[in-house]
Design a protein that fits this description.
By secondary structure, the chain is mainly beta. The longest helix has 12 residues. It is about 10% helix and about 45% strand. The protein is globular. Strand 3 and strand 4 form a beta hairpin.
C-alpha cells in the first residue's frame, strides 16, 4: 500500500462527507414545550400530569422523543424543525389509549393540555 493511499484513507475516516438535504441549512430549529394536567373532579384546579411520556411524530422525521413530564407536568423538545406534528401523550396506565393532538411548529409553545383522566 502506497503512502499516498494510506493518507487518503486516514483523511476520509477523520473527515467523513456529510450529505445534507436541500434546504437543511436554512431550516430553523425551535424548542417545543408545554404542560400537561389531569382533570381533578374533586379539586379546584387540574393536577400536573407527572411521568407521562410525550412524543412528536412527523412523516418526514419520524418519532421524536420521549420527553417525560416533570413534577409540574412540563415537557420540552429541543431542535425541532418547523413543520406539522402529531403530539402523542402516553398515559402511565398502558391500558388507556394515548392522547393525540395535531400541532404546527411554530408556535414554539403548545397550549396547556388537560387530560380527562390519569
Amino acid at each position: 500500500m502506497s503512502r499516498r493511499f494510506r493518507v487518503l484513507v486516514v483523511i476520509s475516516v477523520l473527515f467523513p462527507v456529510i450529505a445534507l438535504a436541500p434546504g437543511a441549512l436554512n431550516a430553523q430549529l425551535v424548542v417545543v414545550s408545554g404542560a400537561i394536567y389531569v382533570y381533578n373532579p374533586g379539586g379546584t384546579e387540574p393536577a400536573p400530569a407527572v411521568g407521562h411520556r410525550v412524543y412528536l411524530f412527523n412523516r418526514s422525521t419520524g418519532w421524536i422523543g420521549p420527553s417525560v413530564t416533570d413534577n409540574y407536568g412540563r415537557f420540552a423538545f429541543y431542535k425541532v424543525t418547523q413543520s406539522s406534528y402529531l403530539l402523542t401523550i402516553y398515559y402511565r396506565n398502558p391500558g388507556i389509549p394515548p392522547f393525540e393532538k395535531p400541532i404546527t411548529v411554530p408556535p414554539e409553545i403548545v397550549e396547556t393540555i388537560v387530560l380527562p383522566h390519569e
